[in-house]
Amino acid sequence: MSNTNDDLKELVRNKYREIASQTKTENQTSCCGSTACCGDFDYAVFSESYDHLEGYNPDADLGLGCGIPTAFARIREGDTVIDLGSGAGNDCFVARSLVGMSGLVIGIDMTEAMIEKARENACKLSLHNVQFRLGDIENLPVTAGKADVVISNCVLNLVPDKQKAFKEIYRVLKPGGHLSISDVVLNGVLPEKIMQAAEMYAGCVSGAIQKEEYLDLMRESGLTNIKVPNEKQILIPDDVLLNYLNPEELEAFKAGGTGIFSISVYAEKAVSACCQGHGACC
């Protein structure tokens, strides 16, 4: 697998362009979707049910998340919420039910097909305070100090330069604002064959980093009061791993204690914070 930042972004863009053309059900049963026969990675091992949430729209749910970031986001009526890697709009529409008519939700995704799908869904729902913008998380198309809350669901692990991504999150948050994200992290080292597998990168596994490194990057960006309110281990089925490892390598991997975890993380931008690198307080 190529490992330049541009190559990785194009890999992810191509994969999610394919997924955007299908429904959740199709993604779970057909090639190039959740149980992709061309990639053999089942994204459903991460996803959680949204059925009980106000604002949930099945058309916007492609089953690609690894948690429910709005559950810990403390979103209030009137807030401006930015969703990073918004896909077909699933978390945006749940956030919209919380911000109400007086709030604003901005979804950002780097895949044009996902933006188009999300806009179609918003139009069907006649939601005029939900926007979708094409953009890169490492260079967000948002002015500094815009967001009360930033959310993201199983996306930052796909960003090559995570340090830059967290600095961008810090920049777009208002002083006193906060983020709530669900993501995939590691405890231990993955086998090289998995790290080099393109399908496993697009599937959120080989792009993940160590949990403590992840939290350290958040701290280095200026974020404070970092909490992990939810954490669960993700078990990748043996039949998936055997696409990349032989039986002996699989047994060694399982015995090595490496853990793949879905975590929810909450963090804040201090009320007294200034926007770094922009010469003035937000």
| Strands in their spatial order, largest beta sheet | 3-2-1-4-5-7-6
Q: Which fold name corresponds to the CATH topology?
A: Rossmann fold
CATH architecture: 3-Layer(aba) Sandwich
Secondary-structure-based class equals alpha/beta
Write a structural description:
This protein is of the alpha/beta class. The chain has one domain: 3-Layer(aba) Sandwich (Rossmann fold). The protein has a 7-stranded mixed sheet. It is globular. The N and C termini lie far apart (41 Å).
Describe this structure in a few short sentences.
The protein is α/β, with parallel strands linked by helices.
Key descriptive features of the protein:
282 residues; alpha/beta; Rossmann fold; 7-stranded mixed sheet; 10 helices; globular; disordered C terminus
Topology (SSEs and partners):
Blueprint: H1 5-20, H2 24-29, E1 80-84, H3 90-99, E2 104-109, H4 112-124, E3 130-134, E4 147-153, H5 162-172, E5 173-187, H6 192-195, H7 198-202, H8 211-220, E6 224-234, H9 238-241, H10 247-255, E7 259-268
Helix pairs in contact: 5-8
